[in-house]
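[Automated response] Your request has been received and processed.

Submitted sequence:
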Amino acid sequence: MSKRCYYETLGVQRASSIEDIKFAYRKLAKELHPDRNPGDKTCEHKFKEINEAYDVLKDQDKRAAYDRFGHAAFENGHAGGRHAAGFDFAASFTDVFDDLFGEFMGGRGRGRRSNRGADLRYDLQISLEEAASGRVTKIHVPSAVACETCGGTGAEPGTKREACPSCSGHGKVRATQGFFTIERTCPKCHGHGTFVRDPCKQCQGQGHVQKERTLEVEIPAGVEEGTRIRLSGEGHAGVNGGPPGDLYTFLSVAPHPIFQRDGHDLYCRVPISFATAALGGTLEVPVLSGEAAKITIPEGTQTGHQFKLRSRGMPVLRRRGVAGDLYVEVRVETPVKLSKKQKEMLKAFAEEAQGSQPECDSFFAKMKDMLGGKPN
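Generated structure:
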């Protein structure tokens, strides 16, 4: 049976560019791959055909020979090619493996692999006052740092890392089983592509050592619960000279004994005496900055009434001079442990309090109407 035209097999024109040929091959390879079509002999045969066609058309010299002589160019030793019946599918698939899957494996090329160090997390609790004012604080972080003796290579000074003989520096080894090619991490170099023949005595060939470092973290004014501050390059050291990771400081704000926060605003509850609520007066209330502010309590102030102190709340992050408000809610405290004289005075007041308690009067009037005017 005569062979199909390689261009027809890949579904491209003779004038197609190598990019068009590669695109067509990738699309067909994904559709016909045996892993996606287990047990389908037709797909298996077509998969072999497209790999044979791509092996020829991707090579400039082979393609030129094929365009001139057709399939005969690779028969009887012509063009230095393989006999059609002896086509080495496994070798061809190995050759195009990087083209097909390289971009899905992070685009990593061959040779020595340098890996970025791991990121670190540090949890830091601050007070509400510190969140409002901002501060620079020092933290102590244990982490892996590059070994100063070997400069992070892991090799004894005067020596260097060598290309791994098992994978020839690729970091991966391939095994062929039938027409399948399996790629796995090199067991000798663990994917680095290099190995150390004479390990550094200081770090035992690791390239890094454990060390506690003291770092400064700048906390800006106005930070909130869960704010993340990134310190670039302060994480674990990289491998094979790779860049270090980053350090992320996560902030938590400790509960405050007086204030509660809601966004940029602050809230607090202040108790006032029965007399102050009834007669009015002046009251000093705390402010987060450590000062005291005065508010005027009008006569007849009720529990739950809020007083607003503008711009005395939390500063707005990265907006200098802008802050939220402070809301002061008063709670009228009922006196306890009254003396005999105080009780007599309150009884006298209650007897003459008709009309001075409008909320009570209104409520009991509605209650009376609801009960049909029946007496209690």
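Summary generated for your ticket: The first helix runs from residue 6 to 10. The two ends are 111 Å apart (CA to CA).
If you did not submit this request, please reply to this message.
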